[in-house]
Amino acid sequence: MAQLPKLAVFDLDYTLWPFWVDTHVDPPFHKSSDGSVRDSQGRTIRLYPEVPEVLDRFRGLGVPIAAASRLQKKTGVPFSQMIFFDDEKRNIVDVSKLGVTCIHVHNGMNLQILTQGLETFAKAHAGP
Ligand SMILES: [Mg+2]
Question: Which residues form the signal peptide (predicted)?
Answer without folding.
Answer: none
